[in-house]
Automatic annotation (TrEMBL):
InterPro entries for the chain: Nucleotide-bd_a/b_plait_sf, RBD_domain_sf, RNA_proc/Spliceosome_comp, RRM_dom, SF3B6_RRM
The protein's name in its UniProt record: Splicing factor 3B subunit 6-like protein (inferred by orthology to a C. elegans protein)
Domain RRM per the UniProt entry, residue ranges: 5-80
Upper taxonomic lineage: Eukaryota, Metazoa, Ecdysozoa, Nematoda, Chromadorea
GO molecular function, one term: RNA binding
GO biological process, one term: mRNA splicing, via spliceosome
Stretches assigned to coiled coil: none
Keyword line: mRNA processing, mRNA splicing, Nucleus, RNA-binding
A cellular component term, taken from the record's GO annotations: U2 snRNP
Organism name: Strongyloides venezuelensis
Keyword Plastid assigned: no
């Protein structure tokens, strides 16, 4: 299984806060970000992003099955490919085309970047 700096926590109790998670997960390394799920679909989950991959592994090794408010945490390495599998790419492609049209961009983004970032010289 490939490791990552980002881990996903499941089975969180509803009353757990981001501050509590920071206290629990911060013992294992520097944390870049914690995101606690608040919607119906994401409630009970959180993402913890560590600065270092080894800190994420250390937290995974120590906290999987850890008891928080009488619930046992399930810790998983985050796998982006699973998240993108369900993504509607056609809808995203249409939105991208709308944005390109709105800002007058062509298909060649490298050419557009050069056009937009170069400033004319004053003489």
């Amino acid at each position: 299984m490939a490791m990552a700096q980002k881990i996903r926590t499941q089975k969180l109790p509803a009353e757990v806060t981001g501050e509590e998670l920071y206290t629990i997960f911060g013992k294992y390394g520097a944390i870049r970000q914690i995101r606690v799920g608040t919607t119906q679909e994401t409630r009970g989950t959180a993402f913890v992003v560590y600065e270092d991959i080894f800190d994420a592994k250390n937290a995974y090794d120590h906290l999987n099955g850890y008891n928080v408010h009488n619930r046992y945490l399930v810790i998983l390495y985050y796998q982006a490919t699973k998240a993108y599998r369900n993504m509607n790419t056609e809808k995203a492609r249409q939105k991208l085309e709308e944005i390109k049209e709105r800002y007058g961009l062509s298909g060649d983004l490298e050419k557009e970047k050069d056009r937009l970032l170069t400033t004319p010289r004053r003489e």
